[in-house]
Design the sequence.
């Protein structure tokens, strides 16, 4: 006969097993998060060889002066042929550069002390013909002119020769920068001042507005590294 004491011990042991947790055993899980290392791209703005870079409101701009005698349309065609456009002048650094290049041209010629360079600027169509006297065109004369390269802002560099622009015979719609290799030129002009002329002008030997070259420009190109 099984003793009553042994039966009670067996029942007690069984009860203890049943009260233990039935949840499965799990090892602690460790998660490692990998963060991608940030990368940076360096942008460098550059100009073609022999062109000079300038900073503008809209970005970096390249300028080169080409020597020669051109009409306004001929000047546009020449700039286009080298990948650019006839350029305006936005700031003092650009104007100083253009003046110095123009004086170098005069020094190379050697026999003249003054001349002019075509710029990318025109009298606006709203201020031509009989409209030239409209209030939007005078007396703030720079309202009558626009830069044509699409990248020149402001008109602080539109400073004119004495008594210019005069829109002579309602035909002078193009703009040139005069270059003087002496204290003053004809009509009291100094280097860097502007003059309005007919777009067909190309030659006028020994005259202040004789075309000695053109100012071409193009946007600087970006390279990434």
Sequence:
């Amino acid at each position: 006969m099984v003793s009553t004491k042994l039966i009670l011990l067996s029942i007690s042991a069984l009860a203890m097993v049943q009260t233990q947790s039935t949840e499965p055993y799990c090892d602690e899980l460790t998660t490692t998060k990998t963060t991608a290392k940030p990368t940076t791209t360096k942008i460098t703005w550059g100009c073609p060889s022999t062109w000079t870079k300038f900073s503008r409101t809209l970005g970096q701009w390249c300028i080169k002066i080409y020597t020669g005698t051109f009409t306004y349309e001929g000047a546009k065609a020449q700039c286009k042929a080298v990948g650019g456009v006839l350029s305006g002048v936005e700031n003092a650094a650009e104007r100083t550069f253009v003046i110095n290049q123009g004086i170098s041209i005069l020094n190379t010629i050697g026999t003249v002390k003054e001349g002019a360079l075509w710029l990318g600027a025109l009298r606006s169509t709203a201020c031509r013909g009989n409209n030239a006297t409209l209030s939007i065109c005078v007396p703030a004369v720079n309202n009558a002119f626009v830069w044509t390269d699409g990248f020149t802002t402001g008109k602080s560099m539109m400073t004119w020769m004495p008594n210019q622009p005069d829109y002579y015979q309602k035909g002078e719609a193009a703009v040139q920068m005069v270059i003087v290799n002496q204290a003053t030129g004809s009509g009291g002009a100094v280097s860097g001042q502007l003059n309005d002329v007919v777009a067909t002008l190309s030659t006028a030997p020994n005259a202040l507005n004789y075309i000695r070259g053109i100012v071409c420009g193009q946007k600087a190109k970006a390279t990434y590294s």
Remarks:
- The CA atoms of residues 75 and 214 lie 6 Å apart.
- Strands lie at 43-46, 52-56, 59-67, 85-86, 114-123, 145-147, 174-180, 194-197, 211-219, 221-224.
- The first helix runs from residue 4 to 19.
- The chain has one domain: 43-224.
